[in-house]
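Quick illustration, no need to memorize.
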Amino acid sequence: MKIYRPNDNNQNESEKNLLLSLIYNNLPLKDKYSKLIEAYSEIKLTPGGINAILESLIDELGGTIRFPRVGDNNERFDAIIEFEEYICLTEIEIPSTTILDAPRNLLDNYAVAISRHNIKYKPIVLLVICWDVPNKRTDYWNVVTDINSILNLKIKTISIPALALHYWSKTPIDLKADYYLDADNQKMINTINILDSLNLPENLSLGYLEPIK
């Protein structure tokens, strides 16, 4: 169940603008990253806050994101993201307490996209966007591994902090080629490499680019 503050359109717009200042600011990258992480509760409580941040980040990374219309049962995905060379059917799991449902939902989304919406003009990537990374022993990793082994479908996993790091560091992102994590590899190596290249502390990755435990 999602809990938001009482709805006030003017207040909501003001809050969204404040949230976007987490993405667009002149702070050093380490401070940008820390400020974004610390604002999690504020983002989660702001109606449309997660969507606003995702829309900005995806746009800056060269894609477009669309969220299904409220009440439209024909579009079961949380979002569809289109890049020049591929499309991402996306489940957004924030908080990640129900992330175990995401792989099954993505398989349903994929079947519907192929059969009902005929989305075949670009390669389809199955993507889970989270805030923090599931723990090492969470069944999520085993489910993702099994889906790849049995169906040859790679479900990609990326966090919002990872997306932000790609944008802030001007590092291109390729969700078609990268960000397949499973039971044997639970680290977002590409984003951790960004931290390393900028000589930022390794512990910044814990919880957001790799599991804490």
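The chain is about 40% helix and 10% strand.
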